[in-house]
Each structure stands twice: as C-alpha cells, then as structure tokens.
Specification:
Number of strands: 10
Shape: globular
CATH superfamily of the domain at 20-105 and 183-190 and 211-264: P-loop containing nucleotide triphosphate hydrolases
Strand order of the largest sheet: 6-7-8-3-9-10
CATH class of the domain at 20-105 and 183-190 and 211-264: Alpha Beta
Largest sheet: 6 strands, mixed
CATH architecture of the domain at 20-105 and 183-190 and 211-264: 3-Layer(aba) Sandwich
CATH topology of the domain at 20-105 and 183-190 and 211-264: Rossmann fold
Bound molecules: adenosine-5'-diphosphate, magnesium ion
Helix content: 25-40%
C-alpha cells in the first residue's frame, strides 16, 4: 500500500478532546423495554477506542455487541452514561447535528453490505459526500478504490458484483469520507473464508497505512486475529481484553469463558 501521502482525517479538536482517543464511552447503559420485558443490554460500559487502532468486540450472542456499536455510532441513544466521538458528546446533540456526525465522522460496514441496488459502485461510494454537497477528494477516492481493487468495477451495480466485491464497495464507502471511526458489524458474516480474509486484510491495511480507527463486532476468532485488541463482552459488560490477539489465543480464551460459564 502507498505511504501516507494524503491529508489526515479532519481534526477532532475541542476543549474536551482526549488526545489519541477517537471514541469513548463512560458508564454507558442501554435498557430496552419496561417491566417484564426490560432488558439491560449494556451495563455501565466504560471503554476507549484509540486513534489508529483496530479493535474487535467479541462475546456470546445477546451480550450487547451490536447495541454497543449502535450506541457508539450514534444509531441508537444511551439510556444513561455518555458516548463521545472525539470531543463531541453525542447525547448533547440535536437530531440534525447527530445526523451530521454520523455522515461526516463515522463510517459503517454491515454484514448485509447495505448498498443501494439502483446505484453503481461509484455512486454508492460517493453518495453520502454527494448529498452533503462536499464531493470526495478525487485523488483520495481513486486511491481507496484502487486499494480495494474496484477500479474496473465502478460502473457495475451491486447485483453485478460478487459478495466480496460488494463488501469492498461498502469498505470504500466507509473509508472515503476519512471518518474518525469505522464501525463494522460482522463484516465477513456473509462471505466465504477466503473472501472474508481479503476484506479483513483491507480493514487492517486501512489502519496500518492511514491510521484509520476501526471497531469491528465479530464472533469469529480468525477475524478477531486481524485486530490490535479484542474486548470481550458478557451480559452487557466488558469482562476481558487481549492485545495483539491471534486466532488461537482468542479461541482459547473463548473456551475458558465457556468452561467458567458451565461451572458457575
Ligand atoms: P449481540 O449483538 O451481542 O448478539 P445485542 O446487542 O443484539 O447482542 O443484544 C443485547 C441484548 O439486548 C439482548 O438480550 C437482546 O435481546 C436485547 N435487545 C437488542 N435489541 C433490542 C431491541 N431493539 N428491543 C429489545 N431488546 C433488544
Ligand atoms: Mg449482534
């Protein structure tokens, strides 16, 4: 990948900015429902995501991974506690300001790609910046597109692309605005393992080459092995962390949790 010759992400300045922290939560709590149907999906979660770091969030089904991602990304609101993207505390924003933060400072990659079927790959990648009236920097767009290997596919619609190619369009779409954080929820969940490895490689390269901050939810130890750090969730709380994970170490840790769960 080319050396860093592009301008860095827009600065996240402000009086409350913590240097080196792209996003963080403080006592983040999310409760769904009331009475008998009340579920505490997140229970006073305090976590920080450092700039230029690739974090994987793991945990059993129902442990709160998606809820955490949605709250940090401003797709869902906290019941209590706070979420910051850079210096911006999401809970203090109007709906309009929140929409702007999501558009300008956050990138999303979903398991189901979420591309618009009637638009070409290129239109999907640039849609958000086009709507914002701030066209993506042409050189940067070319660079991102070349990096994910889509240069000869830009005129294709999603139905004319393989699953891996569609996910690469989604990655390019997420990266092109140089967001403060890219959130990915099971980004390889609907890909075969070889294509999944390719997609994870692109995500890791974006962290290494461009200091992109990436937070990825996954249940796959192999996917987590691409990250710099793994945060393990259980019952809506972070219960453990691992740095420089490998798939084998992550798998061992998961087995240890399972065994502890059975004897508890
Ligand atoms: P994960 O992504 O780790 O599988 P989720 O964040 O989806 O976990 O869910 C955490 C808990 O919150 C689960 O008990 C789930 O049933 C509950 N939950 C998630 N979304 C909703 C919702 N929209 N309404 C009610 N309960 C929800
Ligand atoms: Mg989930």
């Amino acid at each position: 990948m080319a050396p860093k010759r592009f301008p860095p992400s827009p600065p996240l300045d402000g009086a409350h900015r913590t240097p080196g922290i792209a996003a963080c939560t403080t006592d983040l709590t999310k409760v769904y429902g009331t009475g008998d149907t009340r579920v505490t999906a997140l229970d006073r979660v305090t976590l920080a995501f450092r700039e230029g770091e690739f974090t994987a969030i793991m945990g059993p089904s129902g442990s709160g991974k998606s809820t955490l991602m949605h709250c940090v990304a401003g797709l869902d609101s906290a019941t209590s506690g706070s979420v910051r993207i850079g210096a911006t505390e999401l809970g203090t924003l109007t709906d309009r300001q929140l929409t702007e933060v999501r558009r300008d400072r956050i990138g999303f990659i979903f398991q189901a790609f979420n591309l618009l079927p009637t638009l070409t790959a290129r239109e999907n990648i640039t849609l958000s910046s086009d709507i914002a009236g701030r066209p993506a920097d042409a050189a940067w767009l070319d660079h991102v597109v070349a990096t994910v290997g889509l240069a000869d596919r830009l005129g294709h619609r999603p139905a004319q692309l393989s699953g891996g190619q569609q996910q690469r369009v989604a990655i390019a779409r997420a990266l092109v605005a140089r967001p403060a954080v890219v959130f990915a929820d099971e980004p390889t969940g609907s890909l075969d393992s070889r294509t999944g490895a390719e997609v994870l490689g692109f995500l890791r390269d974006s962290v290494r080459a461009w200091d992109q901050t990436v937070v990825m939810v996954t249940h796959d130890p192999v996917a987590a092995g691409y990250a710099d750090r793994v945060v393990f969730l259980a019952d809506g709380r972070p219960v453990d962390e691992m740095s420089a994970p490998t798939a084998d170490r992550v798998l061992d840790r998961m087995k240890a949790f399972d065994a502890a769960g059975r004897t508890a």
